[in-house]
Every structure is written in structure tokens, then in C-alpha cells.
Design goal:
By secondary structure, this protein is an alpha/beta fold. The protein contains 8 helices and 11 strands. A 7-stranded parallel sheet has the order 1-2-3-4-7-8-9. The N and C termini lie close together (9 Å). The protein binds zinc ion (2 copies).
Length: 281
């Protein structure tokens, strides 16, 4: 039986087999049979063109994209040669208007899976630049924003990301709540529209345990969104979004209980962008 964690970032350490091995050792200790790495494309020079130009993102992407995608891929290949059960992916940003570059990069390398995540909201009449709303060091920006409008835009982008059919699963499907800002009132309508779009596109929605470690203190997605996904027939899987070895496989039993409560009995696995099902732990 496959037990996987397909949302793991190496970016806080050096790109070495020693650092990667610590994540793999933690996966083994947590009872996992596979670990999938999913770096952010904004770290890689080769991916710069899938983001808006410098001024439109206030120079942030340009500060970040200092690494080489080739060396990331080589590191994963080295890990495989060393006998580690590793899978390779990226956590792609969905930015409307930049789909073609994502599609080109998806076709250019041998990925096992593709995560589609929304971390940016586009400029509008009041705000002239893209907003990286999950940046905790700039959470004060939320005080200047219309929270409900941000949620509406976010869930529309989730639907659009699904509709591109570029991705295997949607990352942390309600990460818009990360800083703890929530609109008053019921979100059922937004949840259902997003879930139905994911179902139509045949894309999965991950359960991401990192939410429990963030200011919001709640797993992604919220139980209401997970139930909407289940009703619509959207498959799921459980991931940690670990950025340090200790977080690999973290809180998976708690997440599995939530999945079961929502009606799930199986989770998805991936290899070479092909999906399979395995029983929920
Ligand atoms: Zn993310
Ligand atoms: Zn992530």
C-alpha cells in the first residue's frame, strides 16, 4: 500500500543529498512509503517568465529566483540512484495570463505530479500590483483589504486554475485564510462553486496539514469545503507542506480522520503524472 506525502519543500536548506535524506528519513519514520518534493518555481531562474514583470510583483520574484531547476532535478535523480523512494514535482503558481509558460515548463521536464496553487491575487482598480496574500511578514496588508472581495477573487482563481487542466491537484484549497482574516457569513456558495469546477476538470484537492501550523490554526481545506469536494466527487490526498524535515507526514492521522468524516475512503497517488487510488490510512 502506498503512503505518500507529495508536498514538501527543500528550499530552507542546501540542495544536497544530505539535507534531502533527512526529509526521507522522517518520511520513513512516519510510516510513509514515498516522498514527493514540490519546490516553488519562483526559486528557479528557468521559471522566471511564468511570473509578472519585476514592477508588478515589487521585485519579490527577482530576489527569490536564484537557483537552477536543472540542479533540483539532478538532486532528485541522485536521490533515486541512492535508493530513496522520491517523486518529483513543483508547486506551480496559478497566475491568470501566464498559463502558456506553465504549460511549456510542464512539458519540458519529467514530473511525477503537478500541484496548482493560488498565492497571488491580480492587480485591480485600487491595487496596482499583484498581491502575495500568504506572505506572513506582510500580513498587515490584510488590514487595508476588503476581506470578502479577496475571498471571492481567490475562489474564482481556484476554479480557473482547475479549468486550465494543467494540474493534478490543487494545493491548500483555502489558503486565503492563512493569516486568520475571514469574512463574516457563510462561504458555502464559494466552496460549492470551487468544488464543482475541480470536479468538472478532474483535478484533486489536497488536504494540507500546514494550516494547523499557521496563524489561522485550521487545516486546509475547512471541513465545509472538504465536504463540498466530496459531494462533487473531487478526489483527495493528504500532504504536509513541510519546509523542515520534522514536518514531513505531520498530523496525517488527524487529517485522515477528517477525510473519513467527509466521506472519503481512498486517496490518490501519482507517478509520471498518472493517478492511482489507494485506501485511506
Ligand atoms: Zn503554497
Ligand atoms: Zn507548499
Amino acid at each position: 500500500m502506498v503512503r505518500s506525502d507529495y508536498h514538501v519543500h527543500l528550499e530552507r536548506g542546501p540542495w544536497t543529498l544530505e539535507w534531502l535524506g533527512r526529509f526521507a528519513a522522517q518520511a520513513r519514520a512516519a510510516g510513509l512509503t514515498e516522498i514527493g518534493f514540490s519546490e516553488h518555481p519562483h526559486r528557479f531562474r528557468e521559471c522566471r517568465k511564468m511570473y509578472p514583470p519585476r514592477d508588478a510583483v515589487e521585485g519579490w520574484v527577482d530576489q527569490q529566483c536564484t537557483e537552477s531547476l536543472e540542479s533540483y532535478i539532478r538532486l532528485i535523480e541522485d536521490a533515486r540512484r541512492a535508493g530513496l523512494p522520491v517523486k518529483i514535482g513543483l508547486e506551480w503558481d496559478y497566475l491568470p495570463g501566464y498559463e502558456a509558460e506553465v504549460e511549456r515548463l510542464l512539458g519540458a521536464y519529467p514530473w511525477d505530479f503537478a500541484i496548482g496553487s493560488v498565492h497571488w491575487l491580480p492587480p485591480d482598480d485600487r491595487n496596482g500590483v499583484w498581491w502575495g496574500f500568504d506572505n506572513l511578514s506582510r500580513a498587515d496588508e490584510w488590514e487595508r483589504r476588503d476581506v470578502l472581495a479577496a475571498y471571492r477573487r481567490y475562489f474564482l482563481l481556484i476554479a480557473q486554475a482547475a479549468e486550465t487542466r494543467l494540474f493534478d491537484f490543487i494545493g491548500h484549497p483555502d489558503v486565503i485564510k492563512v493569516c486568520g482574516y475571514r469574512p463574516a457569513g457563510d462561504l458555502t456558495e464559494l466552496y460549492e462553486a470551487a468544488a464543482e469546477a475541480m470536479a468538472r476538470a478532474g483535478v484533486c484537492a489536497e488536504i494540507n496539514t500546514a494550516g494547523w501550523r499557521k496563524p489561522v490554526g485550521e487545516v486546509y481545506p475547512a471541513p465545509g469545503l472538504l465536504r463540498a469536494c466530496r459531494r462533487a466527487g473531487v478526489p483527495t490526498l493528504i500532504n504536509s507542506d513541510a519546509h523542515v524535515p520534522e514536518d514531513v507526514g505531520r498530523d496525517f492521522a488527524r487529517a485522515a480522520a477528517i477525510a473519513r468524516e467527509a466521506g472519503y475512503a481512498e486517496v490518490t497517488t501519482f507517478a509520471g503524472r498518472a493517478r492511482a487510488m489507494t485506501p485511506l490510512a
